[in-house]
Specification:
mainly alpha; 6 helices; 130 residues
Length: 130
Protein backbone atom coordinates (compact mmCIF):
# COMPACT_ATOMS: atom_id res chain seq x y z
CA UNK A 1 0.00 0.00 0.00
CA UNK A 2 2.83 2.41 0.85
CA UNK A 3 4.47 1.85 -2.54
CA UNK A 4 1.19 2.61 -4.30
CA UNK A 5 0.68 5.84 -2.35
CA UNK A 6 4.27 6.94 -2.99
CA UNK A 7 3.82 6.45 -6.73
CA UNK A 8 0.51 8.35 -6.62
CA UNK A 9 1.89 11.29 -4.59
CA UNK A 10 2.71 13.63 -7.52
CA UNK A 11 -0.74 13.09 -9.03
CA UNK A 12 -2.49 13.48 -5.67
CA UNK A 13 -0.66 16.77 -5.16
CA UNK A 14 -2.06 17.94 -8.49
CA UNK A 15 -5.57 16.82 -7.50
CA UNK A 16 -5.28 18.64 -4.16
CA UNK A 17 -4.15 21.78 -6.00
CA UNK A 18 -6.96 21.63 -8.58
CA UNK A 19 -9.75 20.97 -6.06
CA UNK A 20 -8.45 23.66 -3.69
CA UNK A 21 -8.27 26.20 -6.52
CA UNK A 22 -11.79 25.33 -7.67
CA UNK A 23 -13.23 25.71 -4.17
CA UNK A 24 -11.30 28.93 -3.60
CA UNK A 25 -12.45 30.52 -6.88
CA UNK A 26 -16.05 30.24 -5.75
CA UNK A 27 -15.40 32.73 -2.95
CA UNK A 28 -14.04 35.23 -5.47
CA UNK A 29 -16.93 34.63 -7.84
CA UNK A 30 -19.37 35.24 -5.02
CA UNK A 31 -17.70 38.53 -4.07
CA UNK A 32 -17.21 39.84 -7.61
CA UNK A 33 -20.26 38.54 -9.48
CA UNK A 34 -22.69 37.13 -6.93
CA UNK A 35 -22.10 33.68 -8.49
CA UNK A 36 -22.45 30.83 -7.59
CA UNK A 37 -23.95 32.31 -4.41
CA UNK A 38 -25.37 35.79 -3.80
CA UNK A 39 -22.99 38.49 -2.56
CA UNK A 40 -22.95 38.91 1.20
CA UNK A 41 -21.62 42.48 1.26
CA UNK A 42 -21.85 45.63 -0.79
CA UNK A 43 -19.18 45.31 -3.44
CA UNK A 44 -16.51 47.88 -4.26
CA UNK A 45 -13.55 46.68 -6.34
CA UNK A 46 -11.15 48.98 -4.48
CA UNK A 47 -12.18 47.83 -1.00
CA UNK A 48 -10.61 45.02 1.04
CA UNK A 49 -13.45 42.73 -0.07
CA UNK A 50 -12.89 43.69 -3.71
CA UNK A 51 -9.16 43.02 -3.55
CA UNK A 52 -9.76 39.73 -1.73
CA UNK A 53 -12.38 38.68 -4.31
CA UNK A 54 -10.03 39.49 -7.18
CA UNK A 55 -7.18 37.51 -5.59
CA UNK A 56 -9.53 34.62 -4.84
CA UNK A 57 -10.94 34.42 -8.36
CA UNK A 58 -7.78 34.93 -10.40
CA UNK A 59 -5.44 33.30 -7.86
CA UNK A 60 -7.73 30.28 -7.75
CA UNK A 61 -7.63 30.07 -11.54
CA UNK A 62 -3.81 30.17 -11.55
CA UNK A 63 -3.80 27.45 -8.88
CA UNK A 64 -6.14 25.25 -10.95
CA UNK A 65 -3.95 25.68 -14.03
CA UNK A 66 -0.77 25.15 -12.06
CA UNK A 67 0.72 28.38 -13.42
CA UNK A 68 3.08 30.40 -11.19
CA UNK A 69 1.88 27.99 -8.51
CA UNK A 70 4.46 28.50 -5.76
CA UNK A 71 4.29 32.30 -5.71
CA UNK A 72 0.51 32.39 -6.15
CA UNK A 73 -0.03 29.86 -3.35
CA UNK A 74 2.28 31.84 -1.06
CA UNK A 75 0.33 35.06 -1.70
CA UNK A 76 -3.00 33.28 -1.18
CA UNK A 77 -1.72 31.72 2.04
CA UNK A 78 -0.93 35.22 3.29
CA UNK A 79 -4.34 36.46 2.15
CA UNK A 80 -6.05 33.74 4.17
CA UNK A 81 -3.90 34.41 7.25
CA UNK A 82 -4.80 38.09 6.93
CA UNK A 83 -8.51 37.20 6.51
CA UNK A 84 -8.41 34.97 9.56
CA UNK A 85 -6.83 37.55 11.86
CA UNK A 86 -8.86 40.52 10.53
CA UNK A 87 -12.30 38.94 10.14
CA UNK A 88 -12.42 35.86 12.36
CA UNK A 89 -9.99 35.97 15.29
CA UNK A 90 -11.60 39.08 16.86
CA UNK A 91 -14.77 36.98 17.31
CA UNK A 92 -13.09 34.48 19.64
CA UNK A 93 -10.22 32.02 19.93
CA UNK A 94 -11.76 28.81 18.56
CA UNK A 95 -12.02 28.68 14.73
CA UNK A 96 -15.24 26.64 14.86
CA UNK A 97 -16.87 29.39 16.92
CA UNK A 98 -15.44 32.38 15.02
CA UNK A 99 -16.22 30.72 11.63
CA UNK A 100 -12.57 30.90 10.61
CA UNK A 101 -11.84 27.21 10.09
CA UNK A 102 -12.07 27.50 6.29
CA UNK A 103 -9.70 30.48 6.19
CA UNK A 104 -7.22 28.64 8.44
CA UNK A 105 -7.43 25.48 6.35
CA UNK A 106 -6.97 27.36 3.06
CA UNK A 107 -4.02 29.20 4.61
CA UNK A 108 -2.16 26.01 5.44
CA UNK A 109 -3.10 24.13 2.27
CA UNK A 110 -1.77 27.04 0.20
CA UNK A 111 1.35 27.19 2.36
CA UNK A 112 1.91 23.48 1.68
CA UNK A 113 1.36 23.95 -2.07
CA UNK A 114 3.82 26.85 -2.11
CA UNK A 115 6.46 24.52 -0.63
CA UNK A 116 5.55 21.33 -2.54
CA UNK A 117 4.91 22.85 -5.96
CA UNK A 118 2.19 22.19 -8.49
CA UNK A 119 2.56 18.48 -9.12
CA UNK A 120 2.82 16.70 -12.44
CA UNK A 121 -0.48 17.84 -13.93
CA UNK A 122 0.35 21.52 -14.23
CA UNK A 123 1.59 24.13 -16.65
CA UNK A 124 4.53 24.76 -14.31
CA UNK A 125 5.57 21.11 -14.65
CA UNK A 126 5.28 21.19 -18.46
CA UNK A 127 7.24 24.45 -18.67
CA UNK A 128 10.09 23.33 -16.43
CA UNK A 129 13.30 22.09 -18.03
CA UNK A 130 13.42 18.32 -17.94
Amino acid sequence: MDKFLVTCQPKLLSILRIVTGFLFMQHGGQKLFGFPAPQRYDFDLFSMIGVAGTLELFGGLLIILGLFTRSTAFILSGLMAFAYFIAHAPNGFWPILNHGELAALFCFVFLYISAAGAGVWSIDHWRSPK
